[in-house]
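Reminder to self: tokens first, then the designed residues, so the page reads top to bottom the way the pipeline ran.
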């Protein structure tokens, strides 16, 4: 199939070998995305190769920076599920909270999780502030991820409060986001690494840890 063949090739280009199960899951996800996108705004991308590169392959690239362990992981502003759900296909042991305030997108995320049979994924229909308030005690996350979520100061505050000592926050940002990070108060945190995305010229994966 064209989708699976193209995805396999593009993923291999960043050093990710995909199993037949993951290829099938990704195609199911893609078909759901196209179907639901007719009713709600999930993505502005329309061409198959663009969806593969900028949604799936970029997400798989982030998975290279995460280990598969039974640790907690929070994805903030999950939207249509990128990067979290493609990462979860490769890192199935991680316990994932999807934080998304828009109810229609939450319905979509739940359907994708159900159809793909992804274990230990909890979809939270709430803002980040609400999520922080509903936690019964200060939870510690091994990973925090976010893509295309604009409130960087709030994310940094969540990271400072909720990241475990050896944890990482992985942010997808552009040049503007990189500049904003340099201006933020990062007390207790530090940018460990900024890696250029292999899929676009002015995109970066920024890793933040305690420091």
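Designed residues (211 positions):
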């Amino acid at each position: 199939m064209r989708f699976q063949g193209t995805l396999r090739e593009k993923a291999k280009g960043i050093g990710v070998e995909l199993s037949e199960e993951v290829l099938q899951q990704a195609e199911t996800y893609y078909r759901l995305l196209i179907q639901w996108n007719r009713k709600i705004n999930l993505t502005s991308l329309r061409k198959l190769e663009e969806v593969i590169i900028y949604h799936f392959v970029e997400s798989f690239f982030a998975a290279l920076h995460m280990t598969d362990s039974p640790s907690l992981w929070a994805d903030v502003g999950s939207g249509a599920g990128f990067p979290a759900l493609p990462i979860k296909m490769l890192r199935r042991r991680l316990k994932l909270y999807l934080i998304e305030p828009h109810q229609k997108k939450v319905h979509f995320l739940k359907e994708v999780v159900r159809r793909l049979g992804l274990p230990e994924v909890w979809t939270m229909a709430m803002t980040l502030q609400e999520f922080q308030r509903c936690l019964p005690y200060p939870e510690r996350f091994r990973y925090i991820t976010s893509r295309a979520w604009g409130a960087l100061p709030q994310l940094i505050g969540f990271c400072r409060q909720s990241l475990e000592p050896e944890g990482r926050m992985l942010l997808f940002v552009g040049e503007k986001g990189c500049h904003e990070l340099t201006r933020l108060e990062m007390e207790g945190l530090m940018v460990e690494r900024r890696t250029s995305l292999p899929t676009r010229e002015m995109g970066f994966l920024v890793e933040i840890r305690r420091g």
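The chain has eight helices and seven strands.
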